[in-house]
Amino acid sequence: MIAAVPAESALTKPGRTEVWFRRILVLFSIAAGLGIVCHFGMLLWAENSFTGPECVVAANSMMLARDGTLYYDLNHYPYTVSAYTPVFYLLQAGLYKLGHPAYTAGRLISFLAMLGIFVLIWRLVVLYTGGDHYCTWIGTLLAPSSALLLSWGTVGQVHSLAELFALAAFYQYSRYAVRGEQTLLWAAGFALLAFFTKQTMLACPASIFVLLWFHRRRTAIQFGAGLAALAAVLVLSLNAATDGRFLSNTVFANLQPYSFEKMLQHLRFALLSAGPLMLVAAAGVRPAIRAGGRALFVYLGFAVAEFVVIAPKIGSDLNYQIESTILLILCASMALHSLDFFRLSFNNRRAWITLLHLPLAVFLVVNCRITLQDVIVRFSGEQLARSEIAKLRTWLSDGGRVLSADYNALVRLRGRMDVETLIYKLLVDARLINPEPVRRDIASASFSTIVLLEDVNHRDPAASVEISTLPTAQIEEVRRHYTLVEQIPAPGIYIYKPLGWDAK
Question: CA dihedral in degrees (455, 461, 467, 473; nearest 10)?
């Protein structure tokens, strides 16, 4: 009697290669799923901020929910800037009024937007590759494996929601371009939503306009002129309704100085986290364009150009790389499809194309490591922040006015922000804000507590320009009229009370 042959041993060599590819993809899919679960659990558990701007957005949304005001006059209290267009603030304020903590509300919006981005990446890869199974799988896997997308998809800031709307606009355009569906109005609508979530979301509508221009110029003009006119009317209306505060917050207050070192920081992280995707996309750019992927690479070009223009400014963070990373994932997936990477790999062809599995593996491994490190840092940071808040709660319990460079403490303990010290100092240095009102209030000890990230009696002359602090003249007033009552060594918080303050 002949023994049964095991199913796997009966496979041909190409079949065994495909089985191993599947196993590896399943393994990394599980790792990506665990990353999503860990970040989701962290966003629900953490009571304190993950980033400085998350505090500012939360404070502005809380003040909007309570006072009905979003954009403030830069020359009067509160000296805080609502740096973005209003959609995210409105959604976060709405959830806050329904009883959700401000941080949790913002993070849930970003998390749902991130999931929507993953779905749209899947749909776009299906659309442009004609449903190529493995390219769809790899594209859908690369997105949740990206440490950048996971990290910023669980922070209560505007970027994930803005990217969702922009990608939805591009998907609707792609349905029009690839399938001939009448979806350009939907594309314009989502592009408008993206702009009114984050005003720099211009790469998508610009790329759509250029792509239409080389296909149907009349349609391009109708799309571009109609979208620009509607956006201009809404912007001018909002600006008039806020007595000019809308543009002063979203445009003029955002014109921070540029830093070459900041650009180098961005480039270093981009090469570390997305460098392998750049290699794959570059390897297949020509065949991908010939295979119908021109639109993806045009959008990538505009996203990179926008990144180069706005990322070097002081105060920017890695979130400025989100759009270009999403497009690199799409372009890399299209490149693999056009190069016939999977068929050649499964057939064990000795071609340079099959070596592209190396940068893909590097991307997945490196980003898994970054994600693990990010979760650990957030966990330890949350424990540290809880201890800090417990100490600050005692000092801020008198109900007096507070001037704090620790924004998280203001959100947690006061629910408002009177002086956003980093942007305030930058605007004072740019002579866009009169510093006298705050200086006078410090000199008259009007603030019952001042919380800084430095010892005013032993300042560091080499401190970063991005540290949250006050102008030099106001630091001098703190030195003259306040005394240091406690230092919290980690993370380096200095608490000041007026001279003659009575501990009783």
Answer: 70
pLDDT digits (tens, 9 = 90+) for 341-397: 888 888 877 778 888 999 999 999 999 999 999 999 999 999 999 999 999 999 998
At 175, give phi and psi (nearest 5°): -60, -40
What type of residue is 47? E
Contact 270, 311 (CB under 8 A): no
CA distance 382 to 390: 12
Among 200, 173, 210, which Cα is nearest to 189's? 173
Least confident of 74-78, 410-414, 464-468: 464-468
Nearest to 201 by CA among 168, 247, 174, 177: 168
Angle at 102 between CA 401 and CA 437, to 5 degrees: 25
Q: What is the residue-wise DSSP string for 65-107?
A: HHHS--S--TTSSSB----S-SHHHHHHHHHHHTT--HHHHHH
pTM recorded for the entire structure: 0.93
Cα–Cα distance for residue pair 419/434, rounded to 1 Å:
13
Shortest CA distance to 117 belongs to which of 156, 170, 157? 170
Q: Give CA separation, 422 vs 48, 69, 76, 237, 466, in Å.
A: 19, 21, 16, 29, 7
For 444, phi then psi, to 5°, come to -95, 10
Tokens of 384: 């540290």
pLDDT in tens, 402-419: 999 999 999 999 988 999
